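[worker-b] picked up task from shared queue
[worker-b] task type: protein-ligand structure
[worker-b] ligand name resolved to 2-acetamido-2-deoxy-beta-D-glucopyranose; SMILES cross-checked against name lookup, match
[worker-b] sequence length check passed
[worker-b] input payload:
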Amino acid sequence: MERRQEWIGLTLCLFTFLTDPGFTSSIIEGPRNLTVLAGSAAQFNCTVSEGWDVLIWLFNGNPRLTLLSDGKTYISPRYSQKGYSTDGRFTSELTISDVQLNDSGQIKCSIQNEEDDMYAFLTVQVNGSLNIKNSNFTVRKNQTIEVTCEALGWAPAPQISWTGSNILINNSMYITDQSQGLNGLYDEESTLTLRPLANVTVTCLAAIDALSKPQNASATVTVYEPPPKSSYQKEVQRNVSERETNRNLEKTGGRGYENNGYSPEEDMSAEKMSGDSTFPKMSSSVYRPKQGLDMSPAPKVPYNRDNEVLPSRTTAYPTKSRQIRNVTHV
Ligand SMILES: *[C@@H]1O[C@H](CO)[C@@H](O)[C@H](O)[C@H]1NC(C)=O
Ligand SMILES: *[C@@H]1O[C@H](CO)[C@@H](O)[C@H](O)[C@H]1NC(C)=O
Ligand SMILES: *[C@@H]1O[C@H](CO)[C@@H](O)[C@H](O)[C@H]1NC(C)=O
Ligand SMILES: *[C@@H]1O[C@H](CO)[C@@H](O)[C@H](O)[C@H]1NC(C)=O
Ligand SMILES: *[C@@H]1O[C@H](CO)[C@@H](O)[C@H](O)[C@H]1NC(C)=O
Ligand SMILES: *[C@@H]1O[C@H](CO)[C@@H](O)[C@H](O)[C@H]1NC(C)=O
Ligand SMILES: *[C@@H]1O[C@H](CO)[C@@H](O)[C@H](O)[C@H]1NC(C)=O
Ligand SMILES: *[C@@H]1O[C@H](CO)[C@@H](O)[C@H](O)[C@H]1NC(C)=O
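[worker-b] inference finished, payload out:
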């Protein structure tokens, strides 16, 4: 009992010392959450009503700047404050300069009235580097290429996205790996796979909250047409576009493979298919609408090698046709 009275007495004494002449001041508005880049300055406001004696800024519970109402201040390195008095209110604007990752934490404003403490969180992020290693590609039309973008030294790991000619690319077309170094910073590598049908500029974007605009890196892809065809081939090609007989479909099928860089073996199997009169119908009815291509049954042939597996072909094919559509968009 006696001990408790002592404690109360001490507390009252302290309150009197700190808040005299009256226990009237309160925090009107405390600091707000803030996310900034490493190396920049972080600022927080704390607005209190008249009658305060002491205002203390704490980082993770440790006092860093103390301000007395008579104007005296006690400061830690990199911490400073500016005071504004208006209409019976006082605002202390705290500035922490050159913030680093380990300055992330709780920032509290206290006027030595526990119930009235107000706090917010400072989040410091690091703007790393972003690079596409191979930034210029020259490829055959519809050739599969991989573009790799590297983000180094970020905190947190940035959100990576890609655009092709300024249109967002579906994230099913790229894979992003992430790792964290000993310094707490993150590296990421994102690999985009595409089969461009026309020239395109692809851009890799890295976003973190502290950056108002994502960082970006671009690569240009120059697409060239396959080598010119012989006059005989041209003749057959024209025949196909004029009258779509099964036989012509098969012939262009074989050449289509060559043009697209397919192996002779596949070409051979296309030849073997020529005896099957049911396949071209299936080819045109099943695959053509999905692909949205006028002509070029060639690539479809392998998928019809075994007639009975058509259902699984149809499940396998949409992946490719989706990629084609995506590429066409970019
Ligand atoms: C401030 O940040 C903390 C920690 O990130 C979060 O829990 C809280 O909801 C945020 N407050 C506001 C008002 O955004
Ligand atoms: C703090 O308050 C002052 C005075 O009202 C204002 O000029 C300043 O922009 C505020 N700073 C922040 C970080 O909100
Ligand atoms: C915080 O990080 C900075 C720079 O990385 C370093 O110089 C400083 O010693 C660190 N401070 C603490 C308390 O760990
Ligand atoms: C982020 O880093 C990039 C690359 O170093 C630089 O171009 C950009 O200006 C930086 N952004 C900010 C806001 O500092
Ligand atoms: C990419 O190609 C363009 C035009 O062909 C050229 O101006 C540029 O210097 C090249 N960039 C690199 C990094 O090779
Ligand atoms: C592109 O190549 C794929 C096979 O890699 C083929 O299925 C597709 O039909 C081709 N598209 C065009 C437009 O040539
Ligand atoms: C992206 O691709 C996935 C499957 O690959 C698909 O389900 C999704 O609808 C596509 N999203 C957009 C926005 O096209
Ligand atoms: C890439 O960043 C630069 C510099 O911030 C900007 O001017 C440009 O518009 C950005 N490009 C894209 C595609 O976001």
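[worker-b] attaching auto-annotations
[worker-b] The CA atoms of residues 286 and 314 lie 8 Å apart.
[worker-b] releasing lock
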